[in-house]
């Protein structure tokens, strides 16, 4: 076989291998029981009249937008804020941490504020600083120093309450979510807002 034919053969083999490998790389298995489907996470959820994903998204969007318009935040360059977990004063289980996490994420993305660790995560922060300074595993010049954490300028506190009414075949649920921004130094409430949600269903949904 002359050199020209050998070159053509090598190119053909290389091309065939490339096509085969590309097909293997892009083809992925599809494991399914046939009973599960992906849905749009933004779709309005009305399976029951209990607190759901649509309520959480509505509250997080409304409260974060309102808070970012508070004059007190604009008056201070990227103030440090901490968040207390929302108090659940309803008769049902609600993942209030998920609410505060969503609000914090939206506000943080604005770049207008910074967040200090909340009270539930403070012990983890203290443990990490202590480990770096007492474990003997880190260079002293590289370990984070004790006493350098920044105190929060403001704290966010919130509550969620509900009123449930039943009459014949109808159930009416009213939720009220309240959020406040408090100046940690002065103790003054600098901002507050509320979000109300009402959900009504017939007996088949409760």
Walk me through the structure.
The protein has helices spanning 3-26, 53-68, 71-74, 96-109, 119-134; strands spanning 80-83, 87-89, 114-115, 154-167, 170-183, 189-202. It is α/β, with parallel strands linked by helices and 206 residues long. The chain folds into two domains: 48-115 and 151-206, Rossmann fold (3-Layer(aba) Sandwich), CATH 3.40.50; 117-147, no CATH class. Strands 1, 2, 3, 4, 5 and 6 form a six-stranded mixed sheet that branches. A hairpin with a 2-residue loop joins strand 4 (154-167) and strand 5 (170-183). The radius of gyration is 28 Å and the shape is extended. The mean pLDDT is 81.
CATH class of the largest domain: Alpha Beta
- Overall shape: extended
Coarse structural class: alpha/beta
Taking pLDDT < 50 over at least 5 consecutive residues as the criterion, the unreliable ranges are none
Order of helices and strands: HHHEEHEHEEE
Give the terminus-to-terminus CA distance. Answer: 81 Å
Tally of individual domains? 2
Total helical segments: 5
Percent range for helical residues? 25-40%
Largest sheet: 6 strands, mixed
Fill in the CATH topology of the largest domain: Rossmann fold
Which terms would index this structure?
206 residues; Rossmann fold; 5 helices; 25% strand
Task: Write a short abstract of this structure.
The N and C termini lie far apart (81 Å). Helix 2 (53-68) crosses helix 4 (96-109).
């Amino acid at each position: 076989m002359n050199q020209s034919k050998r070159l053509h053969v090598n190119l053909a083999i290389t091309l065939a291998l490339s096509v085969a490998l590309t097909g293997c790389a892009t083809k992925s298995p599809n494991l399914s029981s046939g009973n599960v489907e992906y849905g749009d996470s933004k779709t309005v959820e009305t399976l029951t009249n209990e607190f759901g994903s649509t309520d959480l998204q509505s509250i997080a969007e409304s409260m974060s937008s309102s808070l970012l318009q508070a004059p007190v935040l604009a008056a201070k360059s990227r103030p440090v804020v901490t968040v207390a977990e929302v108090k659940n004063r309803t008769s049902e289980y609600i993942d209030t941490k998920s609410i505060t996490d969503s609000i914090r994420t939206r506000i943080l993305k604005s770049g207008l504020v910074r967040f200090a660790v909340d009270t539930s995560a403070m012990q983890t922060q203290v443990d990490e600083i202590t480990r770096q300074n007492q474990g003997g595993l880190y260079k002293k010049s590289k370990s984070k120093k004790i006493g350098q954490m920044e105190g929060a300028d403001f704290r966010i506190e919130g509550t969620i309450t509900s009123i449930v009414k039943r009459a014949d075949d109808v159930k009416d649920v009213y939720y009220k979510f309240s959020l406040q921004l408090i100046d940690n130094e002065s103790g003054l409430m600098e901002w507050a807002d509320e979000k109300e949600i009402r959900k009504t269903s017939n007996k088949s949904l409760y």
